[in-house]
Structures are given as C-alpha cells and as structure tokens.
Amino acid sequence: MSHLDMFSARDLEDLCQETSSRLKITPVVVEKDYWTCWVLDRLFSDSLVRGQIMFKGGTTLSKVFGLIERFSEDIDMILNWDMLKGQLGPMEAQRSKTKQDKFNKRSVAASREYLKEEFHGSVRRALGETVQTEIPYDDPDVIEITYPRSFEDPYLRPKIRLEIGPLARWGPNGQFTITPYVAEAFPALFSNPRITVRAINDEWTFWEKATILHQEAHRPSGKAQPGRYSRHYYDLMRMAISVKRQNYLERIDLLEEVVYFKKKYYPCAWASYDSAKPGSMKLVPVRERVKDLKLDYQQMKTMIFGEVPEFDSLMEILQDLEDSINRDPR
After folding, report:
1. pTM of this prediction?
2. Residue 63 lies in domain
3. In sequence order, what DSSP letters do the residues of 55-99 get, joined into one string?
4. Are residues 153 and 255 in the same domain?
C-alpha cells in the first residue's frame, strides 16, 4: 500500500484546507496535487509499468526541479519505444521524407492500439479501485483518471490526464524524488512522503519550451493558438530567471537535438524550425497574438502560487532571453 493511502475522505479534505492556509495554495490545487503524486507513486512503484514510461513536461518543472510556481495539472509521459520496436523497428533509422511520414503515422496508430489493449489495463491494475480510468473516445493518447474530490475550480479540470506518446525523445534523464504539498506542509504526518520517479532532465525541457515559443512566433495569422498556451511562456520565463539560466544557454547542442527531433517526428511547414538557432531564435509573440495570450494568462493565474508576474514583465524577460540566445552564449 502507498504511504499516501492513509487518510479518510474527510481527513484528506481537512488536510487540504489546512495545507492551503499554510502554503497559500488553493485547496483544489492541493487536492489535485495529492492525487497527481498518488498516481505517480503507484505507477513508478509498479514493476511492470515503471519500465515503460518516462516523466516529462511542465509537471516535472514544478514537482521534480522546483523551477516554476505553477500547478501543472496533467502528467506527460513518454512511452518506452521498446514496447513498439518489434512491430515498427528502430526509431532513429534514416528514412526518406515520405517514408518518415508513414512511419510517424504508423507509430501513433501502434501506440494508441498498445495503450488501449495493454497499457491501460496495466495502469488500471496499478492504481486499483480508488480511482476510475478511461481513454476518451476523442483523445486516444490520454488516460483520464477520475479521483475522489472535495473541491472545484472553473479553470482546473476535475480529472488527471495521463498523456502518453511514443514519438518523444527518451533523452537525458535521471531518478528524482517528489513530495505532495500536504507532506511539505505537515511532514510529521508522513513516515516517508518522498516518491521516486524517472524524469527527463530540465535542460532538455528548457529547449523544448523554447522551440514551442519559436513555433508560436511563426504561427500564421489566420491559425488560432491553442488554449492554455500561456503556460509555456510562464514556464520558460521562470527558467530564464533561475540559477540554471547559464547552464541552459550553454547547451545549444540540446537545442539542435530538439529541433532535429521535431523536424523529423513533428514536421510543421510554418514553424520555421530551421531558424530556431542562435541569431534567429524567436520567443516573443507577434503583436497580433498578444491580446489573446494575455487573456489566456489572466485565466491561468489561479494556477500560479507565490508571486504572479505581470504579463508585460514576463514578456520583457523573454525578450531578454531571446536576445541572449541570439548572441550565442557558448
């Protein structure tokens, strides 16, 4: 049994309320963080599941590396390519553009089939009956996890989304520990609140975020930006003002790897990936995007705890980071 499985529903509700008061984080975020950590604990403690997945994305920046003060509500995972290798062959093989496009489509289809027929069952067994799981019919790369909840928020989804994909780099990574907010606030209540996970290193995530912003800076005027994208701008801003800024900037080799990977597995005609390099990197949105992005950021503010930077300040920091990259800091 997980060391987080020790509270009745009423006790957990009270604990979330008390943690909210102590840490100045809304109760709904505290509660969802608890269940997010609970899910990660179950998955990475399971001998069958843990070898198939790697933790990545925004949640690692907050829970693993402590770089952002934003609650990232979804769990991004990379599916171990070995699960599909026998069917599809090596991931990194050289292919023509046409063959690569076919390979990418086959990979997505095979991953979805594996997720539906095998992996979902393993996850359901690892999590047990405390929560309910399903793969949405309109989102076949996701396992939605419904947990017992006591609080609600209009911006926060009432489910944990386990987003899993095969076409992601099983790149620089390590073993780390995370702790739920309730244990940070009341450590004496837990004998061992630290949860061990395997996650992609933050240096890789920095350049993944940077290339997302670069792509968005080149998005055609008639093509709407997806919702909730202001999180990427906030995350990169926080990384830009961290003590690791110079470390990130010195790893231009990782930028080159990220660009190569995206061009090969996530080609986008308008993303201008060839210009995602020192001298021509773009992080700041074009003027016509600012209004909608600012509104999206205002809506996301409930997810940020601690100091909430003003949107204009966020843009100034990103402009400074863009200038630094374009001076080639190596």
Report:
1. 0.93
2. 9-200
3. EESHHIIIIIS----B---SEEEEEPTHHHHHHH--TT----HHH
4. no
Question: How many Å apart are CA 6 and CA 40, to the nearest integer?
Answer: 16
Domain count, the chain: 2
Residue 168 tokens read as 């992601």
Give the span between the Cα atoms of 189 and 88, in whole angstroms.
48
Q: Based on the domain organization, do 193 and 220 belong to the same domain?
A: no
Q: What is the pLDDT along the chain (330 residues), one digit of tens a residue?
A: 456 777 899 999 999 999 999 999 889 999 999 999 999 999 999 999 999 999 999 999 999 999 999 987 789 999 998 888 888 888 888 899 999 999 999 999 999 999 999 999 999 999 999 999 999 999 999 999 999 999 988 778 889 999 998 888 887 999 999 999 999 999 999 888 899 999 999 999 999 999 999 999 999 998 999 989 999 999 999 999 999 999 999 999 999 999 999 999 999 999 999 999 999 999 999 999 999 999 999 998 878 887 899 999 999 999 999 999 999 655
- Distance, CA of 205 to CA of 60 (rounded, Å): 9
